[in-house]
Write a structure and sequence with these properties.
Blueprint: E1 6-11, E2 14-19, H1 30-45, E3 50-55, H2 66-72, H3 77-95, E4 101-105, E5 109-110, H4 112-118, E6 122-125, E7 130-132, H5 143-153, H6 155-164, E8 167-169, H7 170-176, E9 181-182, H8 188-200, H9 204-216, H10 219-235, H11 240-251
Parallel strand pairs: 2-3, 3-4, 4-6, 5-7, 6-9
Antiparallel strand pairs: 1-2, 7-8
């Protein structure tokens, strides 16, 4: 299958998904959303037992691209809800992927890109990688990512990142538990392959059942919270602060918040 925004490479039992819009810092477009979901479907159906996701160029993923952001200003409430469901489906697909998924974070991972990087089973990062959920800076609510982040690092740290919108380095992300290991840039691909080899040495049935159990223990609550987050993610797009935040970001000026 051909993809316009990523490359899917397979070698033996390992599949690699490479986000491939380096000129856009691998920002998420509508096409990339579709491509990523299709690529994950293809990997799941393939003989590959391990998946690696990384970015081409100097960034991992800069979040939603400018064209996509502009399109949000003209969406109807129904369109906003539909788009929120699509993004939620991508996050949940990564989080619940049945095969081990390794994120090799080669650079900045911001907003939705941070979710892709940290929702994987294992997150390896270069020392210069940056992580952040910056939604509140431009009038969004980080509703969808909050569902997963609270489970990963606890509510206190999740509040820190989500309410401040601050960007953190790899070392702080490691201390928080968002990153499993910091790896020199020249060793990142090799370390991801070495980790994949370690996982291949384990029983495929055991890994599959363990992942399934971990998800099943919290499935009802997770689905309920995702539905709530989808609604919140869509509803904030009708507010004046959202329009001002996004417009000011696109116009590269400070926002003038009204609190509405």
């Amino acid at each position: 299958m051909g993809y316009g925004t990523l490359k899917l490479e397979r070698e033996d039992a390992v599949a690699a998904i490479v986000l491939d819009r380096p000129e856009k810092r691998n920002a998420i477009s509508a096409e990339m959303l579709d491509d990523l979901l299709l690529a994950l479907d293809e990997v799941e159906a393939s003989p590959a037992r391990i998946a690696i996701i990384t970015g081409s160029g100097k960034s991992f993923c800069a979040g939603m691209d400018l064209e996509g952001l502009r399109s949000l200003l003209g969406q109807s409430p129904q369109e906003s809800l539909r788009h929120s469901r699509q993004v939620a489906a991508m996050f949940l697909r990564i989080y619940s992927f049945p095969k081990p998924l390794i994120a090799a974070v080669n650079g900045a991972a911001i907003a939705g890109g941070c979710a892709i990087a940290t929702l994987a089973d294992f997150t390896l990062a270069v020392p210069d990688a940056k992580f952040g959920y910056t939604e509140v800076k431009i009038g969004f609510a980080p509703a969808l990512v909050s569902v997963f982040l609270r489970r990963q690092i606890g509510e206190k740290l999740a509040r820190d990142l989500l309410l401040s919108g601050r960007v953190i380095g790899a070392a702080e992300a490691f201390r928080m538990g968002l990153v499993n290991e910091i790896v020199p840039p020249e060793n990142l691909a090799a370390r991801a392959r070495a980790l994949a080899a370690d996982l291949l040495a384990a029983s495929p049935a055991s890994i599959t059942r363990t992942k399934r159990l971990l998800l099943a223990c919290d499935q009802a609550a997770l689905q309920s919270e995702i539905e709530l987050a989808i609604s919140e993610n869509a509803e904030i797009r009708s507010t004046p602060d959202f329009r001002e935040g996004l417009t000011s970001f696109l116009e590269k000026r400070p926002p003038k918040w009204t609190g509405e």
